[in-house]
Amino acid sequence: MATPSQKGERSEAAILHALVASGRVVLMPWGASQRYDFVIDEGGGRFTRVQCKSGVYRHGCVYFRTASADRRRPNGDPYIGQIDAFAVYCADLDASFLIPIEDVQARQVAALRIDAPANGQTFGIRWANLYVLGCNPALRLNSTERKTGFEPATPILARLCATTAPLPLDDL
Description:
Layout: H1 4-21, E1 25-27, E2 38-43, E3 46-58, E4 61-65, E5 67-68, E6 77-78, E7 85-90, E8 95-100, E9 109-113, E10 132-133
Parallel strand pairs: 3-7
Antiparallel strand pairs: 1-2, 2-3, 3-4, 4-9, 5-6, 7-8, 8-10
């Protein structure tokens, strides 16, 4: 079984691959003293600080942590003001996502919905298709409509959505 560090390294590598494959210029900070893992050069002097996270697929959603928690900070230390986006890799789906931090509430866990909710809920949904990176055929359909400032979004899996309610997860 992989250690948490190994899972994180695997996620960072997959995210880096997805970002570069999508044509982005990616900068890597020297050392590990910053809260961000990568910086995307958006051009025109604009930069996006990115924190990489490993996501898990459960109950039709990809869940990922939005704060770093330990014994000193059991409620977590949020990234607000220190990063501009989360990049999430889900090994179960072999998919990467780029989510602007303003699209995620400052809680410990966030979700991107992959499958339609069984109760038919349509309000308060965070569709994963709006944030997918790369060209995973299982998650991307044909469209060039721009939904976010980071990614040309597509109507990926029309049933994709995410609730904003966090769930406790053992795998994160």
